Amino acid sequence: MKRLFVYFIFSTILFVSYASTKPFTVVIDPGHGGKDPGAMGPNGREKDINLNVSLKLGDLIKQNHPDVKVVFTRDVDKYVPLQDRSNIANKANGDLFICIHTNASKARSAYGSETYTIGLDKTNANFEVAKRENSVILLEEGYKEKYQGFDPTSPDSYIMFEFMQSKFSDKSIEFAAYTQDEFISSKRYNRGVRQENFWVLHQTKMPSVLIELGFISNPIEERFLLSKEGQNTMANSIYKAFAKYKHEYDKKNVAANTNIATTETPQPPVSKMDNFNQQVSDSKVVYQLQLFITRKQVVDSKAPDFRGLTNCTFYEEGGWFKYTYGSTNNLDEILKLKNSIKSIFPEAFIIVFHNGKKISLQEAEKISKQK
Q1: Which residue from 3, 20, 42, 354 puts its CA 20 to 30 A from 308's CA?
Q2: In 258-355, which residue ranges form alpha helices assigned H by DSSP?
């Protein structure tokens, strides 16, 4: 019995030691800086708001989560090239990338907070945000070579993102949803979780979001974002979202390291649909469109969430209900379907399953070539 107890203690120490060598790393990226002021308001500059909120967020994480490593892409007022921000995050082997920005609009009445993940939401408003944030690369010498010919002002350049499928999409959306929930709790106007093509998110190899705190072009919001109270409110909201995300992360990783299954492997939901009734084989890769995720199940098939689509289905994963549309073994067919619903679900993205396990598009391509 004594020997068994000693063995248990020794095993626990080994486990803790192993875990401690792999700290959770969050990378906080205050947008703009130095020669790049970002959006300008009558009384303030975006770069200053971004930095102040980022530093407050980092302090909150350090104070409450000493086990977490916090990395900043900048912690002073200096210019950091866009690609370098992604490189810093990847070199740090980050587990979460939080990019913080402040919005602006020609319409001074625009207000509220929104969180972006990488994606192809082709709305004009979202593209204007992406174009503005990506245009920082124009300040760099030789940007055409460095950014592979990418022109942030040209819609055609964004075609390069079309077939990008990040294996971190779900985790990014999960953190984004937590963030918007906390903004709502803080009485901020909720502009929602959105998707667009930000270079800095495209290049990071981890769950990544870009947060637009509010509109510096709106006089009321500018006063709020420049105030100590406003910056504390925004930092606290993002911190609470981080705490929720980290809690879920810890639960899953402790379970994995102790061989305890927290949830069953999600099975690919198969829909029979009007004008889209493919014969689906689970032994092949199965392509579907993910529409949205919720914490509570949507029980009404005619709920506004579906925007008029019928025969949608869902699967559960990580405490989320994830709603999908379509199911086929053919990539071309799912691309056609995605194109057919882009006017009502521009944020829909492709997910892939193989034998009940979710995989990336790159993995699906390899499997298809093997067969």
Answers
A1: 354
A2: 331-340
Q: Are residues 240 and 298 in the same domain?
A: no
- The range of the structural domain enclosing residue 199 comes to 21-253
Measured CA to CA, the distance from residue 94 to residue 70 in angstroms comes to 9
Whether 320 contacts 174, CB under 8 Å: yes
* 206: CATH: 3.40.630.40
Instruction: Give how many domains the chain has, as a whole number.
Output: 2
Query: Can you give the pLDDT at residue 351?
Result: 85
Q: Are 301 and 345 part of one and the same domain?
A: yes
Task: For 68-94, give one letter per residue: b (16+ CB within 10 A) or e.
Answer: bbbbbbbeeeeebbbbebbebbeebeb
238 shares a domain with 302:
no
pLDDT at 166 over 80: no
Shared domain for 124 and 221, answered yes or no, is yes
Residue type, 177: A
pLDDT value at 274 more than 50: no
Are 291 and 249 contained in the same domain?
A: no
Nearest to 98 by CA among 252, 20, 212: 212
Most confident of 211-220, 255-264, 325-334: 211-220
pLDDT digits (tens, 9 = 90+) for 2-57: 444 444 444 444 444 444 457 899 999 999 999 999 999 999 999 999 999 999 99
List the one residue out of 304, 262, 288, 290 whose CA is nearest residue 347: 290
**What is the three-class DSSP state of 54?**
helix
249: its two tokens: 């992360």
pTM of the model: 0.65
Beta bridge partners of 212: 101, 114
The alpha carbon of 130 is separated from its chain's Cα centroid by a whole number of angstroms, namely 14
- The DSSP output letter for 264 is P
Rounded distance between C-alpha atoms, residue 236 and residue 352, angstroms: 36
pLDDT band at residue 272, thresholds of 50, 70 and 90?
A: very low
